[in-house]
Amino acid sequence: MKTIIITIVTALVLVAGTAAFLYWRSIPEPQPVQAPTAPVVPADDISMQQEMIEPTPETPAPPEPPALPALSESDSYMWDALAGLINNESWMKLFLPAHLIQKMVATIDNLPRKHLPRNIVFVKRLRGPFMVEGPEGNYNISPNNAARYAVYVKIAESIDARKLVDAYVHLYPLFQEAYKELGYPDKYFNDRLLAVIDNLLAAPDVKDPVWLRQPNVMYLYADPDLEASSAGQKILMRMGSANAAVVKSKLRDIKQIIMLRMTEKQIGATP
To answer: What angle do CA 118, 121, 126 make, to 5 degrees?
Structure first.
């Protein structure tokens, strides 16, 4: 079975980034306001008023964000952005640095599907085999299997949703370009991201024991309804109910912030 829980964390990151993109893009430009006509002031009062006026300190303009690189040259830029966000050198070793944005987009796009192709994944596989227990023909997922996901759950817990929004708003055009190159020239990546996060939140909340069957090399869920779940939902189900609850809680926090900003600024799902 594929074990790629970091894709869930990335869904968090990109959904937050998309919301931020919509938030800033939807703020209307300030309209010129006609100044009111100043009243006529007697000449004797002008000098006295000038003495009373104190200069107003100028507010410095916020610095312009650095220009984005071309998508084909964005790996080092994206790597630096991730490193600043995660701020943990050992955690960064979980990522594969080549074609980061393109693989992120492809991974996110495939999470609600039945299968997640291995060649599009941008993180290393979990160490050790998938852990099961029970006699032959009556397997279930071992409770010890959840420990393999511990570091990924810590990454999810450490992510600050508001900082994600600030960090990724500037990167959204690159994700949109990668999504077009993936084969969606007339669609918006943010629409797909919102669908992905909803799909993950809808993952069944499975309790131990989770029964399996093994018709060939791969294990399948014995329950046909569970086996029919999406690739992203199966990742959540395999990590154990406690770990899945942590990730889902973070997903809900992100979605709540997105919806709040959409309400405040009347942001639609499509830019």
So the answer is: 80
Give pTM, 2 decimals. 0.73
User: d(Cα 235, Cα 244) in Å, to the nearest integer?
Assistant: 9
Stretch 72-76: mean pLDDT, rounded? Answer: 93
Long-range contacts of 109-115 (CB under 8 A, 24+ apart): 109/179, 109/182, 109/192, 109/196, 110/231, 111/7, 111/11, 111/196, 111/199, 111/200, 111/230, 111/231, 111/232, 112/195, 112/196, 112/199, 112/230, 112/231, 112/232, 113/230, 113/231, 114/230, 114/231, 115/231
Instruction: Say whether pLDDT at 1 is over 50.
Output: no
The number of helices, as runs of H, and strands, as runs of E, in the chain is 12, 4
